[in-house]
Amino acid sequence: GNSVTQMEGPVTLSEEAFLTINCTYTATGYPSLFWYVQYPGEGLQLLLKATKADDKGSNKGFEATYRKETTSFHLEKGSVQVSDSAVYFCASNDYKLSFGAGTTVTVRA
Amino acid sequence: ETGVTQTPRHLVMGMTNKKSLKCEQHLGHNAMYWYKQSAKKPLELMFVYSLEERVENNSVPSRFSPECPNSSHLFLHLHTLQPEDSALYLCASSQDGPPVTNEKLFFGSGTQLSVL
Questions:
Q1: Residue B1: pLDDT above 60?
Q2: Mean of the per-residue pLDDT values for chain A?
Q3: Distance between CA B58 and CA B49 in Å, rounded?
């Protein structure tokens, strides 16, 4: 089956810092890959996705590139804001949905 | 607002109590899901209902009992829980039943459960 492993948190950084959250996947096929965000007190929301190798998903200044050679889908943002404080989940969909454990990100002013 | 509403937002219960979590979706979807979110663990799928029939039950202890009276409502009945059951319980819905791709899942805000 498929699964994802993402960087453990928590991650704390200052406003305008560069953010990277690592995510790697295992799958029998070629899964679609996703990042979800969960803001405080809210449910998970789809942030971005990529459906095949070398695809780049992007949204709200976040980007992630589907790397088949390294089986990775790392999330990046060049300049974070306090409003980006949230829990971020990597997820994959082969024949079954799988979510990572989540990474808590806190951005300080 | 995703169209999926969960109540209560927070729940504290003793191990001998019986309580229920409620989920309601206003999206006209046909499938509903219960997930368990524990700290530092992957999101765990507990139950799936499609057209009000349970289609997946992932080895969940019997102290958790789901109920789906119609396509808009989903309940999770709790009894004789253990402290390790403390977690955020998320409800989700999708237009079609499984298999479903991630982007078609709509999540509620969850019920934060604490078992004392």
A1: no
A2: 92
A3: 12
